[in-house]
Structure formats: C-alpha cells, structure tokens
Design goal:
- The chain has 199 residues and is an alpha+beta fold.
- The protein has one domain.
- The chain is 26% helix and 10% strand.
- It has 1 helix and 4 strands; from the N terminus they run αββββ.
- A 4-stranded antiparallel sheet has the order 1-2-3-4, with helices on one face.
- The longest helix is centred in the first third of the chain and has 52 residues.
- It is elongated, with a radius of gyration of 23 Å.
- The N and C termini lie far apart (84 Å).
Length: 199
C-alpha cells in the first residue's frame, strides 16, 4: 500500500501565517488608497469653494457671511450679522451664506469617515470637515483633520496656523509673517485672504 504525503501541522501553520500577512498587506494598501482618494476629493472641493468665495468677494466687495447658527457662541447684532470673528462649522446646506445657487449648485460635504474627539471639550464631536471663517473683510476656508494631512503634493495648502507645533522654536511665526513657517505636521488645509492667515 502506497501512502500519500499530506501537510504536516507545521506546514499548515506556516501557510496560515503567509496568508495572514498577505491579507494584512492587501488590506493596508486598499485602506491607504481609499484615504488618498477621499483626501483628493476634499482638496478638490476646497479649491472649488475657494474659487467661489473669491469670485463672490470680487463681485460683492466682501466675503460671504457666516450663518447665525454657526457663530460658535458669538452674539449676532440686531441685523443678524456677527461683528467679531465667526467660525462656521455647520454641516447643513447653508454653512456659507450666499454661495448657493449663484456660485455653486450645492456646498460640498466631507466624504467621511468622521473623526470624533476622544477627550476634553471635543469629546464626541466630529473634528473632520470644512470650516469657514469670516470677519466681514477677510476669510479663511479650511479643511480640518484630513486623513493624510502630510500629503506632500498638497503642501502649498497646509494651514500655517494649524501645523501641529506652531509657535515653537522648530516652527517660528511672527504675527502675519508666514515666510518663517517651515513646519511639517499640519492638521488642516486652507485657503485664505491676506489678513486671515493666522486665524
């Protein structure tokens, strides 16, 4: 009688280890590719929004207003406008007033996934998404917490005020002088007018 050779337990375990390692490598590559795709979509949306805001500002003499519900605790005047810097972190269709439908058909939304704060005042809040700030003269349009914030292809839109180590000796910044900023740990991307760089 002839015996057929079968896998030994050791060979079977070795095969399982190899398949597991391959599965991890493939899953990581797919996940990274999905993050890059979503970040490319975010960067494109940010640029389209910035162009719309710039055209609005040229045509109207001022940047778009921030909705009353997005004033981050600031009290609006009797006319409904906010005198001080107002930060719009709204995820409804009107988080920048006056852009839709004249300049864009709809305002973009972040493609997800959400990034929830784990402690302190950010506990349970979504920290990822578009932010619009305006004081009536200047504006900043920002994407907070992209999935791959150090994307070297997008280094020109890294937000100078949200570089992770801003104000340290490694990353000096004096008032509005952005020429001294050379940081490599961004937490946001942005487009802004002259007076809003350090907001």
């Amino acid at each position: 009688m002839k015996y057929q050779r079968a896998f030994t337990l050791l060979e079977f375990l070795f095969l399982i280890v190899i398949l597991t390692v391959l599965a991890i490598i493939i899953t990581t590559a797919i996940s990274s590719s999905q993050k890059r795709t979503r970040d490319a979509q975010r960067a494109n949306s940010l640029k389209v929004l910035e162009t719309s805001i710039r055209i609005y500002r040229e045509e109207n003499g001022a940047p778009p207003k921030v909705p009353i519900g997005c004033t981050n605790g600031l009290v609006p005047t009797s006319s409904g406008e906010v005198d001080a810097l107002a930060i719009g972190v709204c995820f409804d269709p009107d988080w920048i007033l006056g852009i839709v439908p004249t300049y864009l058909s709809v305002l973009p939304a972040d493609p997800g996934p959400k990034l929830f704060g784990a402690s302190g005042p950010d506990l349970g809040k979504n920290l990822r998404g578009f932010v619009y700030m305006s004081d009536g003269t200047d504006y900043k349009l920002m994407l907070n917490q992209p999935e791959i914030p150090k994307n070297q292809g997008l280094h020109k839109i890294w937000d100078p005020a949200r570089d992770g180590v801003h104000g340290t000796t490694d990353c000096p910044m004096n008032n509005n002088d952005l020429t001294t900023v050379d940081c490599s740990n961004p937490t946001a991307w942005s487009y802004y007018s002259e007076g809003a760089a350090i907001w």
